[in-house]
Write a structure and sequence with these properties.
- The protein is 53% helix and 11% strand.
- The chain is an alpha+beta fold and 369 residues long.
- Among the domains are: 1-112, Beta Polymerase, domain 2 (2-Layer Sandwich); 236-369, no CATH class.
- Strands 3-4-5-2-1-8-9 form a 7-stranded mixed beta sheet. It has a two-stranded antiparallel ribbon with strand order 6-7. Strands 10-11 form a two-stranded parallel ribbon.
- The radius of gyration is 26 Å and the shape is elongated.
- The model has no long low-confidence stretch (mean pLDDT 93).
- Residues 149-211 form the tRNA nucleotidyltransferase/poly(A) polymerase RNA and SrmB- binding domain.
- It comes from Pseudoalteromonas porphyrae.
Length: 369
């Protein structure tokens, strides 16, 4: 039984990046052997096990055979006879098909180290085209490692474009598309992710609404916004995603949300920022309009919404907006008004709401005249 470190851990170690997780492949063993040693199997039909102490993932060497359509139609075959080279051949990119033995030596049958040094993302074999999810995955890698100078090999670009043209992306669920978007947002490279998809003709398939607005000018704006977010350590995915939709209307944002199955918080923030940014960024803030926005945002019960919208607008402008501090102070003071004070005055029923509205408006008038 031989154990090898594989995949992303080897790749990132060679690039000098922080290793976030370690995956291992085991050659020459059976499930029964690992279970006897205390490993815990993950799932019933997939030969992946958790180490009894470290909880790192250990997988039996395996091959995959395409059966059916989409990214789930694979039959996994594993046995002690599957070699390390067989296991590495099923991987997507040469840079992800490098193994490291326990003595530290590299096993690199598909020249991944050479491609790492040349900063090239290249597919391992033609079997690459059997999995449509790899279109998004390669775009994500190209974006993540863009700062290191990585590019997609020409033959791999051609293969990816052919996969898009065949309609392979249509087999992906909106939930799966969002998962790859989310990973790219976490990488802090979502601008390059979308740009790569656009160049592969894939963005129009994933979201026509996004493709309709995509151009070099928007890409450059997003680069500046994400740099600003990085500078101030802003990592919330909903805030970052809202930068894509800041100039879209509600229908366009809803179409994007449906196409890639945005989580509710990301969808709602995108909608709120789009709907209220004009009022909040106006050179002359009108108290009545501000009150209307605060009511729509439900500031009184959900103050975090108001703060998030202001932060989204700040990132979009790459600076603190003119009245941001005044808006925060005024909203805090207006929110502190307690209905009980009107009840104590004998005000009842619908008149309580009217009194609240009037008192909150008076607060805003003191700040913005």
């Amino acid at each position: 039984m031989q154990v090898y470190l594989v995949g992303g851990a080897v790749r990132d170690e060679l690039l000098g990046r922080v290793i976030k997780e370690r995956d291992y492949v085991i050659v020459g063993a059976t499930s029964e052997q690992l279970l006897k040693q205390g490993y815990q199997q993950v799932g019933k039909d997939f030969p992946v096990f958790l180490h009894p102490q470290t909880k790192d993932e250990y997988a039996l060497a395996r091959t995959e055979r395409k059966q059916g359509k989409g990214y789930t139609g694979f039959v996994c075959e594993f046995s002690p006879d599957v070699t390390l080279e067989d296991d590495l051949r099923r991987r997507d990119l040469t840079v992800n098909a490098i193994a490291k033995a326990e003595d530290g030596s590299l096993i690199d049958p598909y020249h991944g180290k050479r491609d790492l040094d040349a900063r090239i993302l290249r597919h391992v074999s033609q079997a690459f085209s059997e999995d449509p999810l790899r279109i998004l995955r390669i775009a994500r890698f190209a974006a993540r490692y863009h700062y290191l100078g990585f590019t997609i090999a020409k033959e791999t670009q051609s293969l990816l474009k052919a996969m898009v043209e065949r309609g392979e992306l249509n087999t992906l669920t909106p939930e799966r598309i969002w998962l790859e978007c989310e990973k790219s947002l976490t990488d802090g490279a979502f601008d390059h992710f979308l740009n790569t998809l656009a160049h592969l003709n894939a963005l129009s398939v994933i979201s026509p609404a996004l493709a309709n607005i995509w151009n070099d000018q928007l890409f450059q704006k997003l680069q500046a916004r994400f740099e600003y977010a990085k500078k101030y350590n802003i990592t919330d995915n909903a805030l970052l995603f809202s930068q894509i939709t800041s100039k879209l209307n509600s229908d366009e944002i809803s179409a994007i949300a449906k196409a890639i199955r945005l989580p509710n918080d990301a969808r709602d923030l995108a909608l709120h920022a789009s709907q209220h940014q004009h009022v909040l960024t106006s050179a002359t803030i009108h108290p009545e309009q501000l009150l209307f926005s605060c009511n729509k945002l439900d500031l009184w019960r959900r103050p975090e919404r108001f703060s998030a919208v202001l932060k989204a607008i700040e990132i979009a402008n790459c600076s603190v907006i003119k009245n941001q501090q005044l808006l925060l102070q005024a909203s805090k003071e207006a929110r502190a008004i307690n209905p009980k004070q009107f009840i104590d005055q004998g005000i009842k029923g619908a008149d309580i709401k009217t009194a609240l509205e009037h008192a909150r408006l008076e607060v805003f008038k003191r700040y913005f005249r």
